[in-house]
Amino acid sequence: MSSTATTSAPAPSARELLPQGEARTRLRRIRHLKDLTTRFLVSAAGYGVVISLALIFVFLFAEVMPLLRNASLAEPVSFPVPGGDSDTVFIASERYQEAAVRFAADGTVSFFDPRDGRALSQRVISFDGAEAVSFSSGEPRTGLVIYGLSDGRAVLAKHEYDVTFPGDQRLVTPKLSYPLGEPLTTIDDAGQPLEVITVQQGGTGIGIAAVTADGRLLLTRYASRRSFLTGETEFVRSSYELPPPPAAPTQILLDITMRNLLVGDAQGFLHYYDISDPAQARLRDSRRVLEGDLVSVTSMAYLLGTVSIIVGGSDGSVAQYFLVRDENNINRITRIREFRQHPAQITTIFPEFTRKGFVVGDAGGNLGLHYGTSASTLFIKNVSHQPINNVAVAPRNNSLMWTDGTGQIHYASLWNRHPESSITALWNRVWYEGRSQPEFVWQSSSATDEFEPKFSLVPLSVGTLKAAFYAMLFAMPLAIFGAIYTAYFMSPKMRGLVKPTIEVMEALPTVILGFLAGLWMAPFIESHLPAAFSIIILMPLFMLLAAGLWHNAPKALKFLVPPGWEAAMLIPVVLFTGWLCITLSPLIEIWFFGGSMRQWFTDVGITYDQRNALVVGIAMGFAVIPTIFSIAEDAVFNVPKHLTQGSLALGATPWQTVIGVVLLTASPGIFSAVMIGFGRAVGETMIVLMATGNSPVVNFNIFEGMRTLSANIAVEMPEAAVGSTHYRLLFLAGLVLFAFTFVLNTIAEVVRQRLRAKYSSL
Q: Which tops the pLDDT comparison, 10 or 542?
């Protein structure tokens, strides 16, 4: 019997399995192509991030750029004065600049097209045999003008404009009306000439103040009353003689509330009369507003709302004043700010219709454009070789019109869209109308047309830093110490439970955290204030006490807990401490705070708001903790094992190893975690929006709220008119936030690189 032996082929060697020749070359090309593709994609992504940041910056700056543009006046159009050769005493235009009006000294009222001088209509006011010796106008919005006559009477008129749209074409029809029904009204029963006069219309009627040739100061008020039966408006006249001013008056101003009367005189003084009760009116305050014996008040005007007074002097000075209550609750004339001095005597001042700006003309033929709140002199421009007699700004602040000694009216387009913004108004203390001192205030809108917008970015910037500071104060210790313990001391199995759980917290929408903070946490902390503070104090003490007890516990008990699971023993301690503090909270209030800790704060002068920085710090801290924890834990966990093992082998304890080796090596990563968390806190919107009360205040009181840059943008951007100053300032706030985070991250990266270079040799 024969057998056939079968032999298997020997297995190929490793060298034989390697690709040879063309196959190896092809694999090299594929690998090289993959490397190039990866390098290109990574580089493109990096450049894409840089380009995206640059485009964001360019977009923000493009929206902010108009705020930096200076006001400019176009080349004027000139045409002969309509209505005769009599001196012009007043000019004004309507909203659409399709009609304007000129009042002459002889009573001629001419309506014309300000763009080319074309005459529209003309009226003549009869003075009934008298002569006009003075003239004044009310607030520009009212359209009121008044002539003071030589026989003690006055002519009160009003220029108005009806706008209709026949055949889809806008038609502006000017008209002249008489608010009192008749042109003439008696001011001085003695028949003395009214040498200085003023008029104002407010909610209670019309007020007229005048100084007669024999030096008497008269006040006449016409209270409006609507007939219940006929619906017609009637005026009830009442006259008063006020105490005479100390010197010869040159200007008089009456506010729309009919409570305040201001008189400027030839000696450079401004006098304030309290006329809230005209029968008991008296001189409350006198102040020298112009220095020099030969300097006099040559022009005065109220700004919009008749709170601020602009005073122009014979020396070319321009300053703003308003009444401020002193410690005795008495209004005093207070100098608020000065503007750039004109080269010649101030001859006329005209306020803007809808803002706190004004135009000034002087005897040297110069026009000055100024703005009150921002303390800005936008330009002083020479437009004539003759004195500027009258000036007017259009209701939409987009054109100027003026007269001089040439017998012509000059009209020019004006670009002046954002005078409210300046370094002073945005970053310095500003003295706003109705306030007792300069302050940082953000208040962009109000219910009245006379409102003075307050655009200080300081409260928003401070609020941003305040929110981030308290959030990091809460989050940093918990996140960093938790990361160190989790990465170095915790068992791998427990770490596998804790780390993913905390990282999942980062996916929780911040709007949910804000909702819980605003509607649950804030009221809870308010009603359990002692618990909030006792937890901060007792929680670390109880944890240290528990650690001490565990350290001295019998070894048999310690062996029951596997190494790295000791942290689980603190869970009951934390729960018990929290329960104990909340339970004792009412008793602590009774024992130490008279039954109410919040009232105790109020009694000692500490303001407490329900939605405050404490609530924001806790809520935002929970949002920031996962970011800091995750990055810091990875940095600590990735410290090379040979470093820690070498330290332990040399006799160092685990804590000495953590402090002397692990923290130093992981410091760049921990620092990056902190800075990324801080950037997250700075840009947080929803939590701050829902849990702070959105009060733009300047303080670091933990019991008061704040408003941040990001929250302010979210709140006000939907209501801001596109292209307005408010709209562009919100973009400026975004640019400030962008620049702040960019600079902060750049500094953080520089510090991180230095830390990395310093400890990379370990």
A: 542
